[in-house]
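Structure, all two chains, one model.
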Amino acid sequence: MGVKIIERHGNSLKDKLYLPAIAGGMKTTFKRFIKNLANNSNLETRQYPEVQPNDITDRYRGVHRLTKWDDGSEKCVACFMCATACPAQCNFIEAEERLDNVAEKRPKQFKIDLLECVFCGYCVEACPCDAIRMDTGIFSFVASSREEFVVDKQRLMSHEEYVQKEQE
Amino acid sequence: MDFVSVIVIIVNILLAVKLAVGTTPILVWWERRVAGFIQDRTGPNRCHIGGFRLGGFIQSIADMMKLMFKEDFTPSHIRYKFLFTIAPAVVFFCSLLTFAVVPFADNLIIDGQSHMMQAVPIHLGILWFFAYAGLSTYGIILGGYSSNSKFGLLSAIRTTAQVISYEASMALAVVSIIISYGSIHLNDMVAAQGELAFGFLPSWGVVIQPLAALIFIICAFAESNRTPFDISEGESEIVAGYHTEYSAMRFGLFQVGEFAAMASLCAFIVTMFFGGYHIPWMDTATLKANIDNVLMVLILLVPAMTLLFIGWMQKNNRWKNPNDPRARETRVLTKVFLGLGSITTIALIYVLLSGLSENGISIATAAVQVSTFLVKFFMMCFVFIWVRWTLLRFRYDQLQMLGWKVLLPLALLNIVITAIVIVFLGN
């Protein structure tokens, strides 16, 4: 086994004086300051509401959506698996009979309280029908009252329209 | 007391109060923006009144308003309500009073009568400073003690220990300054700094007494509880230290007091070590003799600086969305600054052309000296902020080690050397 001798720092007079090191640090910060003061277009800060993030991965969990069959009806069969798996108990499902032979049940109402939701993704894992996903890319859901944060089935199935409407 | 001295005293008191308290929003703003720029961020720049952001300055005004209108809450476990209430006031009051003996300009002579250009016209100078700078830490200690919480008490103990160790070295550093200038009156010190050392250097304190300057500046950082010596706040260990239990304007007073202490220490450093109100290589007599030349330089300098500033603003102060009210700020401010610059220039030209009487020369000299002092003062404040965002906090034992084992012996050595030099070389 080779012995590696590590040089100890801090014993020379220059190190013990501290001041050369402090002057070096001050020089670095001052250069940064002057550079950014003279031209602030290279700053790392993103001017958030105007400039939206573009480096969020597709796997990042945003607001839920309910997936649909080709004819626009919901895939959800109201099995309550998601509500059972939910650690925050934020899913509120009301089931009814489905009569068009696609499935036996469908949700009459499907509500998620986004203030309660912890965005853990367990509902997506639990769903046997791939009916709920969290890939909408909506990461900042804004509303002005608590009630508005409880999103219903209609909104969960058509986020695109709502987002478009809000942007206008 | 005649009319002129009343006016002079009022102007001086206003200057002192403005510099001690009025600079707080400016310093808070600088602190945030300088920190941002040093760390490649923007810092707060969105808050605005009718589209006017003023580079983020509105944010510190908004913060001030918030502190004023917040509920003044006293926790139920506070036993010494009186001490708890007066603690921030003590910090604030003492820091404010420290400013009283700083000379803003040389003695103003109007109609043969000499007026001291400081808020309280007394000759106590540096002793007054030590009295009130030392007393202001009592506010912190009282606040921490009466908070009746672990964090407050720990912070109070730390502050006490720190102040005891650093005020000793600070006072000793000042002793060598007093030996070299032979006076405790600050105006005498500044007048002595107007001369030349070694024939070509301005004999500033930092040239004559570099070691004392270094020790005093280091101790000033400790005295004003700023990084690298802010263990009394030490948010990583003791939440916020002495002001953990404070809220609303009581906390605000602590904050203002802290910035006022910093401002007064900057003023003292400038006064004692960086030539005070003197323009380098120009003492008061030279300035009075050449006031016309100085005015001419100013007439050239003011428009040039205004144009430079406007160019810089137009380059950097932009808003992406042209429909936002914030987008038109630069256009309006360009006009405002152009107007201000041209008014100042025209006023200066008028003063130069109409000629100055003897009193006029005195007043113009004082005005130039006050401006010089302000420039130096704000540069020193920037150094305080710059150091804060460069250096790390000292650990408690390192801090005591530095204070007792390094600074104190160095200060004593400096006194001995200074005394020997003075004795052998005369003044």
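Chain A has a mean pLDDT of 86.
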